[in-house]
């Protein structure tokens, strides 16, 4: 296992299954980026024919979002081959392999949806810059008036007969985020937000109907926070429209499927009290399919009138689900504990067969043995997680130096899949191949165990979720797997918060890694992308009186004077989710108190580290840091 092997591979994304069930296209994307752009490609095969994959785009370009026409004869996709960072809609005819650009929209195309009318494509795109806009940009007279100058995606229609793009005067200038046409070719369900602002937008969602034939729209009212994944289905009482959103009333909560009956306009939660969390809906001509995070694995179900009917269980994740209109064949991204993610196809009841092999270079690598963990928290709550043993070792060879890596979110989860690569720093198998045991806990607050489990950290970050993690570590020590004198902790994003929190609460850890971590919740709510949602996690926002505020009591920087653990801090310079100031604040506090630490900033990087050389640096630096403090 080398660092180059980790970062230089490619991964499949967004499979698109044609309505006829024969043709399948997917995007192949490199894990790391060299230069300013990420170059991707489309691959296509007849999965019921010869099954031979062919690359159908050979340009140096970012190509994405493949979607099929209703007759399966045409594939539409986005590509910036003509002008980088300005994606346009293109059409590929598999019969002859010809690709034609269909738009030249100066602001670029954000998304597209082929409609039942074969002459129409629905587009999402920002307004094109005017001559005045371009003149002001040239003159650097480009002051941004917040709330007025923000770009908003608008619904537009492309007429394939004329090549003309029109913009219906609907939705009062709101930002359009998602479209879904009724399976019978009827109206479009349209999800909008008041703004593209990630703090305000998800809290301002509304549903609408749009008739592409008449250009008229109808408002259906507000929706729950962070609504997404629209799907239609027919029922005895007429058409229903569903979506996935956070369960009210808290801003940090488990997700639910909401069902709006179009006849009565009655809306209800269809997944209340389930011990798992819906992730996405997939529309068919009948009842939609629902993907559930279910503990360490994934359940695929059908949304029947009496509730979700489980169809199949899948190890780890089941992502980017696509299906034929009849719902008899599906394709999705999944893998195993020791095999990377690939495209799989089959019936929704399973089993699925692997039809791609996008990382053959990993064949023959000896990975660390991965096993599920099940244990109980101090208050009796059932918890799970994963243990990755050092490569070539068994539990009886312990105790080992143990690195605990906390996931982000906190509404993420560890699933029982290959733990080799993530965009945050501490890759489990990378450490396991260097002799470390790795603990991957799923404390309360994450997906996979229902609404109450996920919502239990709202206003209480660092409390019970922290003791959940400690309980798991103590279990591994008691079993002789973890060496109590060689414990490390790491994490990215919310996991970075937990690592920073841990070393202010205890001196048990000999080394820590904080990657894009939250160290001051008040500052995050004020400057991060998700403002109010972060305030809901920490319990308060700085404008709520003169204080002291609840968020101060759960901010790691408040405990910097206690830190005795050497800590490696990593952060992207252009991170807008958890801004760089979070790391700078922690660094200055640790420097003030004389705490051992190293602070590394990666230029041009956001919340996830993308550039190849930066990814290599993180891998080498991570291992060297834990080797320095945890190895004999």
TrEMBL record:
Residues 335-357 are annotated as: Disordered. Pfam families: PD40, Peptidase_S9. Gene3D superfamilies: alpha/beta hydrolase (3.40.50.1820), TolB, C-terminal domain (2.120.10.30). Residues 423-631 form the Peptidase S9 prolyl oligopeptidase catalytic domain. InterPro entries: 6-blade_b-propeller_TolB-like, AB_hydrolase_fold, Peptidase_S9_cat, WD40. The keyword Transport does not apply. Keywords: Hydrolase, Protease, Serine protease. PANTHER family: DIPEPTIDYL PEPTIDASE FAMILY MEMBER 6 (PTHR42776:SF27), SERINE PEPTIDASE S9 FAMILY MEMBER (PTHR42776). This is Peptidase S9 prolyl oligopeptidase catalytic domain-containing protein.
